[in-house]
């Protein structure tokens, strides 16, 4: 009786394992079939013919396809095919059936950011004003902050530095604290206008960086400056693109 129970348990475990494998294969097969479709579209867009991507190497679905049919193609076309398939989301890597050397996909250069110039143009003849010896933004400057937010919106995803400046009246530790508080007030105002908080950096430098040509005591040094910093490009992802043979 005990032997029979053990046999039933083993049989049940085997059935569960088989079902799990079947489910995994079915799920993986669905994903691989979708990737196969995406690969055919990608190759067509890359103007590559005669190349197929096999997402079922060894009979099992895989995110690492084997490319077939590149024997008589130029290295440039083979490279274009490998890069096109490797760029498909969820593809983990590309290999050619006849062996390749490691290649690198070079990302496209990011488009130039014009927000910096747009904001500087807005602040060329106007400045964000604050109440005397305070970080409270002057109500008359709210409209200007609206315009700054609009100018910055196309560059969301970049890091935007907000730097507060003062003149040299008063103690420098106090000036640094006040300039930082004013930058933080502008930061909060931009967040209220829909600029994501995680892309804003506020800091204050007191009177240490006056406007070029002005004495540090000149009230015109009291200002807020914006710097739009491009995000660091992601490190290129290696793919198995064909090298010299």
CATH class of the largest domain: Alpha Beta
Which stretches are low in confidence, meaning pLDDT under 50 for 5 or more residues running?
Answer: 8-28, 101-110, 232-245
Strand portion: 5-15%
CATH superfamily of the largest domain: OmpA-like domain
Radius of gyration, in angstroms, nearest whole number: 30 Å
Structural class, please? alpha/beta
Count of separate structural domains: 2
Question: How would you sum up the global shape?
Answer: rod-shaped
- What strand order characterises the main sheet? 1-2-3
Helix content: 25-40%
Counting DSSP E segments of at least 2 residues, the number of strands comes to 8
SSE order, one letter for each helix or strand: HEEHEEHHEHEEE
CATH topology of the largest domain: 60s Ribosomal Protein L30, Chain: A
Largest sheet: 3 strands, mixed
SS field, number of helical segments: 5
Distance between the termini: 67 Å
**What's the CATH architecture of the largest domain?**
2-Layer Sandwich
Mean pLDDT: 77
Keywords: Cell outer membrane, Membrane
Protein name: OmpA-like domain-containing protein
Subcellular location: Cell outer membrane
Please tell me about this protein's structure.
The protein is an alpha/beta fold. The protein has 2 domains: 2-108, no CATH class; 115-229, OmpA-like domain (60s Ribosomal Protein L30, Chain: A), CATH 3.30.1330. The protein has helices at 2-45, 75-86, 115-122, 142-152, 172-192; strands at residues 52-54, 66-68, 95-96, 103-104, 159-165, 200-204, 223-229, 238-239. The strands form 3 sheets. Strands 1-2-3 form a 3-stranded mixed sheet. It has a 3-stranded mixed sheet with strand order 6-5-7. Helix 3 runs antiparallel to helix 4. It is rod-shaped and about 75 Å long. Residues 8-28, 101-110 and 232-245 have low confidence and may be disordered.
């Amino acid at each position: 009786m005990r032997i029979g129970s053990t046999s039933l348990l083993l049989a049940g475990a085997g059935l569960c394992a088989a079902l799990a494998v079947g489910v995994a294969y079915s799920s993986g097969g669905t994903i691989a079939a979708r990737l196969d479709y995406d690969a055919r579209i990608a190759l067509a867009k890359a103007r590559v013919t005669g190349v197929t991507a096999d997402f079922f190497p060894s009979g099992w679905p895989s995110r690492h396809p084997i490319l077939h049919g590149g024997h008589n193609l130029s290295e440039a076309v083979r490279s274009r095919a490998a890069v096109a398939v490797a760029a498909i989301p969820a593809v983990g890597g590309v290999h050619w059936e006849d062996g390749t050397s490691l290649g690198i996909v070079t990302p496209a250069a990011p488009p130039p950011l014009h927000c910096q110039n747009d904001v500087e143009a807005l602040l060329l003849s106007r400045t964000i004003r604050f109440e005397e010896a305070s970080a409270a933004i002057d109500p008359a400057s709210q409209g200007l902050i609206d315009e700054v937010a609009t100018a910055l919106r196309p560059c969301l995803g970049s890091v935007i530095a907000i730097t507060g400046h003062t003149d040299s009246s008063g103690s420098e530790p106090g000036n640094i604290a006040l300039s930082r508080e004013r930058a933080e007030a502008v930061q909060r105002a931009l967040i209220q206008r829909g600029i994501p908080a995680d892309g804003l950096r506020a800091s204050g430098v007191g009177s240490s960086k006056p406007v070029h040509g002005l004495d540090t005591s000149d009230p015109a040094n009291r200002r807020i400056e914006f710097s739009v910093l491009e995000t660091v490009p992601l490190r290129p992802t290696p793919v198995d693109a064909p090298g010299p043979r």
